[in-house]
Design a protein that fits this description.
Layout (H helix, E strand, L loop, with lengths): L14 H4 L2 E5 L4 H10 L5 E2 L16 H20 L9 E13 L2 E3 L5 H10 L4 E13 L8 E13 L4 H9 L20 E5 L2 H5 L3 H11 L2 H18 L16
Parallel strand pairs: 1-2, 1-3
Antiparallel strand pairs: 3-4, 3-5, 5-6, 6-7
Helix pairs in contact: 4-5
Length: about 260
C-alpha cells in the first residue's frame, strides 16, 4: 500500500518534542514574543540581539538578500553570547532571529529615524503596493558551548497595498508614536492597519514573523514530520505482520480497526 505522509505539521502537535530544546528568541520585538508565547504557546527565552544593523545595502543584490544577511547576523551574535557551556542545563538549543523590512521600488525602508522620516516613509506608500519581507534564521546548537550544527535561513514576502492617505492622516498617525519602532513606519496590527487596502500573503509576516512558514521549517529542521511519518509506517507494518491473527496485535492487545 502507498503510504501518504501527514500534511505539514503545525507545532501544536510537537510540544513534547520541542520541550527538549531551549528556545531562544534573538529579538527584542514584543510582537514576535507575543507570537511565540500567545499564538504558538511556546516557552521561549527572549535575548535581544546586539548585532549592529548597519550592513551596506549596496553590497547586496536585492532587499531580500540584505534582509537575510541581517537576520543571520542577529542569530549568530546571540548564539555566541547566550549559548555557552553554562547555559541550558545541557539541553540542545534552538536560536531564532528575524528581521523585517519594507521594500518599495527596490528601496529598503526600515525603522524611521525620527517623526519627519516616518511621515516621509508613510506618504511614499500611499495608493501603492509595497513588499514586506521578513527573514528568519534558525540555529541549532546541539550542546551548550558548541558551534551550531545546523543553520537555516529563509525569507517570506507579503505584498501590501495602501489606499490613499492624506497629509493630515499621516500627521495624525505619526503623532500617536506607533510608527517609530516599525519597519516602513506602520503597524498593520495597530492603528496603521486602517491604511491597508489589501494584502497578498501571510498577515503575520507583516506583523514581523511568518508564523506558518516558521512552523513548517522548524518541523522539517528537527525531523518532526519525518518522525511522525515513520511512526505511522511502523504502526501499519505491525498491523500487516499481525494480519494472520485476524487483526489482533500481540497477546492481550487490541489492534484498532
Amino acid at each position: 500500500a502507498t503510504i501518504v505522509p501527514p500534511p505539514p505539521s503545525m507545532l501544536a502537535s510537537h510540544t513534547t518534542a520541542l520541550a527538549a530544546f531551549r528556545l531562544v528568541l534573538a529579538s527584542g520585538s514584543p510582537r514576535r514574543a507575543d507570537i511565540f508565547q500567545e499564538q504558538m504557546g511556546l516557552n521561549v527565552e527572549v535575548r535581544p540581539s546586539r548585532f549592529a544593523e548597519d550592513l551596506d545595502k549596496s553590497a547586496y543584490a536585492t532587499p531580500h538578500d540584505y534582509c537575510l544577511a541581517t537576520s543571520r547576523g542577529k542569530a549568530l551574535e546571540v548564539a555566541s553570547r547566550c549559548c555557552g557551556a553554562g547555559e541550558a542545563g545541557g539541553r540542545a538549543q534552538l536560536v531564532v532571529s528575524a528581521d523585517t523590512i519594507v521594500s518599495v521600488d527596490g528601496r529598503v525602508l526600515e525603522k524611521p529615524r525620527d517623526e519627519a522620516h516616518a511621515r516621509e516613509m508613510i506618504s511614499s506608500l500611499s495608493e501603492r503596493e509595497h513588499e514586506v519581507i521578513t527573514a528568519v534564521t534558525l540555529l541549532l546548537v546541539p550542546r551548550p558551548g558548541e558551534a551550531p550544527s545546523e543553520q537555516r535561513c529563509f525569507a517570506e514576502t507579503t505584498r501590501v497595498r495602501f489606499s490613499r492617505i492624506t497629509a493630515a492622516d499621516v500627521a495624525a498617525y505619526v503623532a500617536t508614536g506607533e510608527p517609530m519602532d516599525k519597519a516602513g513606519g506602520y503597524g498593520i496590527q495597530g492603528k496603521g492597519g486602517a491604511f491597508v487596502q489589501s494584502i497578498h500573503g501571510c498577515y503575520y509576516n507583516v506583523v514581523g514573523f511568518p508564523l506558518n512558514r516558521f512552523c513548517r521549517e522548524v518541523a522539517d529542521l528537527l525531523g518532526l514530520e519525518k518522525a511522525e511519518t515513520e511512526a505511522i509506517i511502523w504502526t501499519l507494518e505491525i498491523k500487516s505482520d499481525d494480519s494472520h491473527l485476524g487483526g489482533r496485535g500481540p497477546v492481550g492487545a487490541v489492534t484498532a480497526g
